[in-house]
Amino acid sequence: xxxxxxxxxxxxxxxxxxxxxxxxxxxxxxxxxxxxxxxxxxxxxxxxxxxxxxxxxxxxxxxxxxxxxxxxxxxxxxxxxxxxxxxxxxxxxxxxxxxxxxxxxxxxxxxxxxxxxxxxxxxxxxxxxxxxxxxxxxxxxxxxxxxxxxx
Length: 151
Hints:
Elements: H1 2-12, H2 14-19, E1 23-31, E2 34-42, H3 49-66, E3 75-79, H4 90-96, E4 100-109, E5 112-122, E6 126-130, E7 134-138, E8 142-147
């Protein structure tokens, strides 16, 4: 059921959100308070509470009409993915070019699994960072990539 709901909203609702100028990811998950349908929105300028409210007001009546859960109750959430959103899409990588990232590998390389450095290049197969040296990683060996948040 979760896959069906997610598929329906990705096909029918996500294009509307994208037309509003946002990147969007969807989760439909069981939480302690019941089922939650969450839309994570992002854009180059960042996302604030007003963006979330604007998207929520537009998609809420559309979801009521679409009824992707076949009347199973759920909580609608519209949220920012957060400043530590993992890098997944080409847009995520482009947004972080020249910035410090953290790469976690599935298995150790040169005795370590976690590497930090400035993202200097990427493609479908390789991600390259620079710290004291330039290091390239095969994407299939990377478990997780996140921006480094420094305060």
